């Protein structure tokens, strides 16, 4: 755990957060500032600061994050209508919390 890391505190149940899904390696919860009807965060339990800090040993966690995104899209009923899986990398790329996480965004109504 990193000191003062918001997502490490959530992982360790130091901040009240309802998990939509949890595995041995990941947690999934709703974004508190949703950009769409469905906006989930898929977060590794182990602290990894950013995509830029990934190492070869982290390949499995990335694969699990993507497969969990696919699973959550199906459970949230946005798999067929479409969704985004998005990483923000570093401050210039929009990363605000420096603990690796992936956004699942979808649920817009097609008109």
Summarize the helices and strands and which ones pair or pack.
Blueprint: H1 6-11, E1 19-22, E2 26-30, E3 38-44, H2 59-75, E4 83-86, E5 102-106
Antiparallel strand pairs: 1-2, 2-3, 3-5, 4-5
What would you note in describing this structure?
- The chain is α+β, with helices and mostly antiparallel strands and 111 residues long.
- It has a single domain (6-106), classed as HIT family, subunit A.
- Helix content is 21%, strand content 23%.
- The chain contains two helices and five strands.
- It has a five-stranded antiparallel beta sheet with strand order 1-2-3-5-4, covered by helices on one side.
- The longest helix has 17 residues, at 59-75.
- The protein starts with 5 loop residues before the first helix and ends in a 5-residue tail after the last strand.
